[in-house]
Write a structure and sequence with these properties.
The protein has one domain. 20% of the residues lie in helices and 18% in strands. It is α+β, with helices and mostly antiparallel strands. The chain starts with a strand and ends with a strand. It is built from four helices and five strands.
Amino acid sequence: MAKIGIEWVKKYHGRAPNLSNTQKQAEGFYNKLSGTRSFNWGDDLAWDQDFEEKGVGSPVTGTDTTWIDSVHIAFDACEILRRSGVFDRWRDTLKGLHIILGFHTTCGDESKRGRYFAEYLNDGYTVIEAWKKACKETESSGTKWAYLRSGGGSGVNTYNDHWHGKGWVSPDPTNSWRAYSKGSC
């Protein structure tokens, strides 16, 4: 069965305004999506190094193979897919990764998007369509959803990926190309 992991932050210790709903949003996704729950790290236990390769980043103590690389899906963040420089910023990240979902803009601090996204995935929508639909239901039209996907290789079609057990899942891409899209919620 496919594995799910989440990391969320509500308390920013003065570096940014605190948020109220990230835990509820992430756990709505985590608890609703069909799959095996692998990790749920919040606030001071949600670490950058869980997403970084060992020997890369600062500090150079990346633990991605233990955490983010061990699951089939993890959740969204504001502005991680801002268009300017997106291909350079994520160049080395898409090694076998199918799709990164997020926002081109800042998104709202709301509590339901994770649950809606999980419900649409469970209902058999493609990953991209489920993402767009959940974003449109929880954000204003001034907010822009985004995705970055990779492709290349025999039989690879990440655009039509579904959640595991709910439809087509592409073989892992060889990352010979990348596609980016954004739109209004």
